[in-house]
Amino acid sequence: MRERIAYVILVGVMFLLFALTFAILGRGEYEPPGGEHGAVVSYEVAVSGAAGHPPSLPAHA
After folding, report:
1. Domain boundaries, the chain
2. pTM as predicted
3. Residue 55 and residue 21: Cα distance in Å, rounded?
4. Which of 3, 26, 27, 7 lies closest to 15 in space, CA to CA?
5. Largest interatomic CA distance in the chain
6. Under 8 Å CB-to-CB from 20, ≥6 apart: which residues?
7. How many CB atoms lie within 10 A of CB 40?
8. What are phi and psi of 44, to 5 degrees?
9. Model confidence pLDDT, tens digit, residues 22-60
């Protein structure tokens, strides 16, 4: 019986977190920090980090 109560509470908390998250995002007032430049920087970091070295440097032979 305790397990069932714990499971219901867990599912309820998860539902509440999802509802609050999408309620805040759905209002359209949230803007990620950095604007358009933040996306460019994160893309450059992702590309340079993908190969393990900066793209301007040759790989070790």
Report:
1. 2-50
2. 0.44
3. 37
4. 7
5. 63
6. none
7. 11
8. -65, -40
9. 988 888 777 777 766 555 555 555 555 555 555 565 566
